[in-house]
Design brief:
Oligomer: single chain
Number of domains: 1
Structural class: mainly beta
Number of helices: 4
Radius of gyration: 21 Å
CATH superfamily: Porin
Shape: globular
CATH class: Mainly Beta
Largest sheet: 16 strands, antiparallel, barrel
Length: 360
């Protein structure tokens, strides 16, 4: 049952749904042959600023535990913005930044106060680093950076919201070194409850995380990545292979990803995911995952075996409605481990709208 909430919080939630729906309606109206706003290319803005992501979203989620109790039944909101300030016109030297909701480094959502959980209104600077590309094959990053997961997803690697403080060297020279990308990362991964990058910069001289990763697109249809990661005394190997399968009727792509925990508490986990594009507006994804360890991966996929299915409906390019269900299919390690998780996510890509209306 949803617990009683202040009227103002319910009003905020309703307003957000109305805004998202209104934005989608405006986009659909413009897409149906109506005149667009006067183009504003903004060349001077692009000279100094590149925006990589700008979006808002809301989701309803309900989580039922192995003991039958409902742990979470709530409405949440999300804001995400990423970009970089360029020191030179070609962008060889820049400062990348990222802002987002979420109260820790594994979450990107704020509670609205509707349902379980108290109202949250914070937006944190989560990513901030210096990026240098002195020559074409070399890229160097230093500061508050994200995780490089390669072809692995947040099921077997790290949650998409996880980041660290440190440095990364990326080499892209496939003609000389075979791999399309070779990545070396070194830094500190911690302060789980401190999402602000400024509160974690004090750890720039500490190191508990090291990663060596390679990635290769073998053919137009087959790509893979592999990495070795050391995190706070834990040694891990990860591999993933993504294959385009246009001749199969039930899926367009297949992704197999896995991890091996070497030491301590050796073990194995994997996931296989298929994606099928039904038409230009509707896409289905689904699969099976087995996770054997507690990790900083997606909270949808805790220890146990699960099947999952997600649908993505885009009535217009900027607006997405995505119901998601994750269901355990075997024994769970504890009575309070999630058994069933259901979500409905509505998101609006502001940057996509800016591009289509020639605003940015």
């Amino acid at each position: 049952m949803l617990r009683a909430s202040p009227r103002i919080n319910m009003l905020k939630c309703a307003v957000l749904f109305a805004v998202l729906g209104g934005l989608a309606s405006i986009s659909a109206f413009a897409q149906n042959g109506k005149p667009s706003p006067t183009p504003q290319p903004g060349k001077e803005i692009h000279r100094w600023l590149d925006i990589d992501a700008l979006s808002i979203a809301t989701r309803y989620r309900c989580i039922e535990l192995a003991n039958g109790q409902t742990a979470t039944n709530q409405q949440q909101v999300q804001f995400n913005a990423r970009g970089r300030f360029k020191f030179d016109r070609k962008g060889k030297y820049s400062v990348a930044f990222g802002f987002g909701t979420g109260s820790n480094i594994t979450s990107g959502w704020n509670n609205t106060g509707v349902g379980t959980g108290d109202l949250m209104t914070n937006v944190f600077p989560k990513v901030l680093y210096f990026d240098a590309k002195p020559v074409k094959p070399i890229e160097v990053q230093f500061g508050g950076i994200g995780i490089n997961t390669g072809e692995n997803t947040e099921i077997t690697a790290y949650d998409n919201d996880v980041y660290l403080t440190g440095e990364r060297l990326i080499v892209r020279a496939p003609k000389k070194l075979y791999f399309d990308e070779i990545s070396l990362s070194n830094g500190y991964l911690g302060d789980i409850t401190r999402p602000s990058v400024f509160r974690r910069f004090k750890h720039l001289n500490k190191f508990n995380y090291h990663q060596f990763l390679v990635r290769k697109q073998v053919t137009r249809r087959v790509g893979f990545s592999a990495d070795y990661t050391f995190e706070a005394g834990i040694d891990m190997l990860r591999q993933a292979v993504k294959v385009k399968t246009p001749e199969l009727r039930f899926t367009d792509t297949l992704l197999f990803e896995n991890y091996q925990r070497i030491d301590p508490n050796a073990g194995y986990g994997f996931a296989i995911t298929g994606e099928k594009k039904i038409n230009n507006k509707f896409t289905l994804t689904g699969g099976f995952a087995k996770i054997s360890h507690v990790m900083l991966n997606a909270d949808r996929f805790q220890r146990g075996e699960r099947v999952y299915l997600a649908a993505f409906y885009k009535p217009v390019p900027e607006f997405t409605i995505a119901p998601v269900i994750v269901q355990s299919v075997g024994p769970l390690p504890t009575p309070i481990t999630p058994r069933t998780r259901f979500e409905v996510i509505m998101s609006y890509n502001i940057l996509e709208a800016f591009h289509r209306f020639k605003i940015y």
